[in-house]
Amino acid sequence: FTDLVLETWDLQCERNSREHRTVEIGRQQLVVRRGQPFSITLRFSGRSYEEGVDKLAFNVETGPCPIETSGTRFHFAVTDFPEESGWSAVVQQQDGDSVCVSLCSPPTACVGRYSLTLETSTGYQGSSYRIGDFALLFNAWHPEDTVFLRDEDERREYVLSQQGLIYQGSRDYITSIPWNFGQFEEDILPICLKLLDTNPKFLRDQNRDCSRRYDPVYIGRVVSAMVNCNDEDQGVLAGRWDNHYEDGMSPMSWIGSVDILKRWKKFGCQPVKYGQCWVFAAVACTVMRCLGIPSRVVTNYNSAHDTNGNLVIDHYLSEIGEENRRSRDMIWNFHCWVESWMARPDLAPGYDGWQALDPTPQEKSEGVFCCGPAPVKAIKEGDLQLKYDIPFIFAEVNADVVYWVVHQDGTEKKSTHSSVVGKNISTKSVGRDSREDITHTYKYPEGSDKEREVFEKAEREQSSLREEDEGLHLKIKLSDGANNGCDFDVFAVISNNTGTERVCRLMMCARTASYNGTVGPQCGMKDLLNVTLEPHTGK
């Protein structure tokens, strides 16, 4: 027999991209999803392939230092039937001098860019041909992939849809902006893969980083850190909140992620100026969807930023409502993060499903500005000790707000507070341009025994202190129909829950507040010196 000589080959990009739902990105390059077969055609010159005489084998390699023990290099021969656990190649059909081969990766393969090489041998003679590159993505359609999502409409929305809505505004006035995620636009996949290759874990140990890219938990954590630039890690976006955006773009003016990711690449992986929470979340959502992990942007209203981990947001005000000292704890009128869908084999059973990832730089986690993935189920149950960063996100939706009134002599008095944090948690509905309220996935119904039980369990873990009740309670109510630009009435409802008459001083002061909770100038003041309350009554 003469040697088998490969003349041409066809990666069948069109057919494969259709079957793998990568049509938008798979026209010029081969892009396939893991665990699912793809076909290539090999055409030999001189003579055709003969089974039993000729041996065909493939090499696939990913990363700069591919080795078999790390799962970044595989050598596999053409066999009669697909291999379950590893890579496999099977002859599908033979037509004269051309052979169609079906290749398949395991559903646990590392994602990324691969090179594909064919080795042919007849007797002791052999040749090697470099056939080309392909990209391998997560596969939400494969039941054994850790990102498997059962519902087709949800897969369309959270993996394939390139447009979405992001909710903003405030709890009582919810607004939305359209956003172009654009995960399949030209150059976005190479940029997302470059982002993985720019992350500090890759630069520290390339082999270890590439070998962990089979795991969406690992990828999510890397993406959450790389979307912000607070670690000098060549991250994508610089955050700014002070209204001085002259040397870049205002966070309000972006309408999609594509422009941001392209600028990052074009200017040598320098951070793009500027982002705020919804921009960080949207860019992270684009990268995750591009890699094949089902993802969505969620908005939490009255979102707490608890810096000291005591599940309490402390505000220090003077008697006339001026901020006495800046607490680093804040309440934002809204805050956005990302949820990504994945199994959590690294945790006890019961925590698969949506995981919260927050790429906005707020607090460090394991020494890096990243947050998550935190199972939403663990947040709901108050299981704060699980990985990753559950106490921080639990506080974002559950923290108690405590106002301390600092008197002129410097003494501090704890005032009453109400549960205002974590309202109307919102995301775009599946297949429709309407809002889906997902608050119930993060917390039990307000005022329910279960809600209190979860908070107390969380508090025990965080061991924060409780104070005794003094028996005087105050609620502030607003007249209906208060509109911007118009006067409005405010009612103070005071109740005396004790058995003795109480004489109190009531001071009411109104101030403007910005969306991150910073207090502005006074816009109303009333000081009533002698308010008498009978036992067990209200006014």
Description:
- By secondary structure, the protein is an alpha+beta fold.
- The chain has three domains: about 5-135, Immunoglobulin-like; about 150-455, Transglutaminase-like (Coagulation Factor XIII, Chain A, domain 2, Alpha-Beta Complex); about 470-539, Immunoglobulins (Immunoglobulin-like, Sandwich), CATH 2.60.40.10.
- Helix content is about 20%, strand content about 35%.
- The chain is built from twelve helices and 28 strands.
- The protein has helices at about 15-20, 150-160, 190-200, 200-205, 205-210, 215-225, 260-265, 275-290, 375-380, 390-400, 440, 450-460; strands at about 5-10, 30-35, 40-45, 55-60, 75-80, 90-95, 100-105, 110-120, 125-135, 165-170, 175-180, 235-240, 270-275, 295-305, 310-315, 325, 330-340, 355, 375, 400-405, 410-415, 425-430, 435, 470-480, 490-495, 500-515, 520-535, 535-539.
- The protein has a nine-stranded mixed sheet with strand order 1-3-7-6-5-4-8-9-2, with helices on one face.
- Strand 15 and strand 16 form a beta hairpin.
- Helix 3 packs across helix 7.
- It starts with a strand and ends with a strand.
- About 40% of the residues are buried.
